[in-house]
Design a protein that fits this description.
Length: 775
Amino acid sequence: MTADPRAAADRRTFIPLDPSLAPPGTRAFRDAGGIPADRWHADQNGETLVPTHCCFCGVQCGMYLRVDHGGKVFGVEPRNHDINRMRLCPKGINAYQQVNHPDRLIAPLMRRSRDEEFREVSWEEALDFTVSEVKRIQQTYGNDAFGLLGGASLFSEKTYLVGKFARVALKSRHVDYNGRLCMVSAAGANKLAFGIDRAGNPFSDILLTDCLLIAGSNVGECFPVMTQYVWGARDRGATLIVVDPRETAIARTADIHVALRPGTDSAFFTSVLNVVIEEGLTDEDFLADHATGWEELKTKAAEYPPSRAAAICGIPAEQIVQVARAFARAPKAMAWHARGIEHHSQGVENCLSVINLCTATGHIGKPGAGYGTITGQGNGQGGREHGQKSDLLPGGRSIMNEEHRRQICEIWGIEESELPPAGTSMMEMVWQMQRREIRGLIGICNNPFVSLPNYRVVKEGYDATEFHAQFDFFLSETAANAHVVLPVTTWAEDEGVMANAEARVVKHNKAQDPPPGVRTDTWVICELARRLGAGEKFDFPDSRSVFDELRIASAGTVNDYYGITYERLEETGGIAWPCPATDHPGTPRLFEDGKTYHPDGKIHLQVVEWHPPMDPYDDEHPMSLTTGRTVAHFLSGNQTRRLGALVEQTPRPWAEIHPSHGFRNGEPVRVVTRRGSEVFPALVTEAIRPDTVFVPYHWPVPTAANALTIDALDPRSKIPEYKVCACRIEHAERIDEVPAPPVAPGHVAYPETQVSRTDPLPPTAPQGRGTSERS
C-alpha cells in the first residue's frame, strides 16, 4: 500500500497539546483524528472524519461525521468551524444516528389505492406508475392539475431542481415548499424595505453590539449554539431585550423581558417608535440620506402612544418607554427575530415594524448594528432563493417579471410561452386539493400532516388527490398516506450546499454511500424528467453539475452565487452571497455603503397598521394558544422522534399554563379551539402569561398542536398564523397517547425510541421559571 504523503506531513507537523492551555476534551478529539480530519483522512483505528455541517437548523454548525473502515457513519465530533466553535446542540450530537437507522426506507413502496397495503416494488415499477399517473391526470384535467411541494431542508441544488422540474417537466404552475411555513414573512418585509431577502449582518456582529433585541425567538432551545453570540455580547456589557409571551431560557437572562400578548407585536414596535420620535432619539441625518416614507411613518406612529399599545399588548406602558430608550440610545444596536413574530396573519407587518425601528435609529449596515432574521430550517435561506417558491425563479427572480422570465428561459432552453405563471402557496394548494383543482401531487422533504395548520383540512385535501407520491428516507405521517413512497438519501449520503441564517453558503460533504435500493433526490427527479420527455434538460449526473447551472442561473441577480464554487467553500468554510466573481470575498454585511438593493438605493419604510388576530376571542375561547419548538426535536419530528436520546429527553408534547388556572403539574388539560380539542399533561409554570397556552408542535394526531391551529394566512406572505388562535382549557380525565412513528410494512418500530412515549409527565425545570417539580 502506498503511504499517503499528506498523512506523513501531518505527523511531521503534529504539535503536542499543552494540558494547561488546551480546552477539556481537546486531546481526545485530536487523538481520534482531529488533526487530519480537514483533509478527509485519519490514520487512527481505520477511522475517517468527514467535515460537514448539521442537517437541522439555520445556524448550520460545523461537525465531523465519523466513518468506520467499512464506510459507515457511526458517530460525530464537534468541528472548530467559526460558526459554532466546537459546539453542538442535542439534535446535532444525535443527528448521525438517523443515517443507518433501522427505520430507514430501503425500497420503493407502492399501492394503487389507499385501501390497499403498501408493498415493496422495484424502482422501475414505482417510477413507471408515478409517470403514468402524472400523464393521466394532466391529460385529463390539464397540466396545473398536478403539483409539487418541496422543502427547505434540501440542498440548494435540489431546490433548484424542484423548481425547474415543476415548470419544465411537469409544465405546472403549482410548485411551492415548506419554507412557506417558516421564513416568508421576513422575506416579504426584507424585499419591501431593502430590495433583498436576507439578514443584513453576520452572527459575529452580535459580539460587537451594545444593545441586542431578540423578538419571537426561543434561541436557547431552537438555535442553542447561537446562544454563544448572545453570551459574548453580554460579556461585553450589551443590554439584552427579549420580546416573547413566554419567559424562555434566553428571556430569563434579559435586562428587559417584554411578555406581550400573542399577536400584538406590530402595535408594540410601532409604539416603541412613537417614543423614539417623541423623545428626539431618531437619527435624522441617516433618515434624510437613506430612507423614504419617513413622514408617513411618523404620522402613523403618532397613533400608537404607549398607553394605547400597553392596552393592546397587555404590558406596562413604562416598559415600552424603557425599550425605546435602551435601543435608541445605544451606540450600536441590533434586532433579530424568528417565527414568533413571523407566524401571523400580520407577519410581514410585524417584521416591517422592527425594520422601521432599526432604520429610524440609524442602526443599519454597521459592525454591531443592523437587523436579521434567524432561519428555522437548515436551508431556510437558500431553499427559497433558486426557484421552488411559487412566485420565484432562480436567483430570486420574479416569475411575474418579463425580463426575468426571458433570462431563465434562455438558460433552460425553453420558449417563454412554455414557462408557467406564478402558482399558489402551500396551504392554498391544500385548499385546491380539497376542491379537486389539484388532483395529483409529488412531495419532497416535507410532512404536512404534522407541519401544516388545521389538520382536518390537510387530511381532507390529501385524501382528495387521485395520486400522491412522496420522497423521504423515513416513512412520515404524510408519506404513510401516499400511493408511492420513494426512498432517498440522507444529508450524509450526498453532497451539496446550504445557506444559513447569515446567508453564508456552506458545503455538506458525502460521508457514506446510501443503502442498496436508495437513490439521491437528484437522480429521482432527473429520471422522472426523462420519463416525462424532458431528459435533455435534466442531464445532471450529480450535485456538482446542478450547482454549476445554478451558479449561471443566479449570475447578475441579487442572489448572485456565480463566484461561489465547491472548491472555494472547502477552502474558506463558507461564503456569504452576493458573490459575483470567483475572486470576490462575498458579502457578510449588507448596506455598509448606506445603499440598499432598490433602484434608488434607499430603505423604503412602510406604514404598519396593527389588527387583531384572525381567530377572534369570545366567552367560549378567551385565551391564546401559541406553538413552537423544543430543544430535543425538529419541525415535524419525522427524524428526531426516532432518535432514542431525544425521545427520552422530550417524549411527548405538553400544555404550558400559568398556575392561576388551578392545575397541578402532569394533570390532564384539554386544549379546545374552533378546530377541535386534545388532552396534554399540564406543565404549570409562572414563565407564561396567564392568558396564554403553549404547546410544542412536533407530534402527529392525536397529540398534534396543528390539529388545533387556524389556517388563516398573511395576505402578502401567505404564511399561516401558527402563533396565535383563540382557545380555552378544561380539566380532562385522560391524556392523549403519543403515537409511534410510522414504519414500512414488515418493520417493527425501533423499540429504543418507544420506551419513554408513555411517560404522562411533562419535562421539568429547563422549560421555565417556577415549573412545578415532578413527583
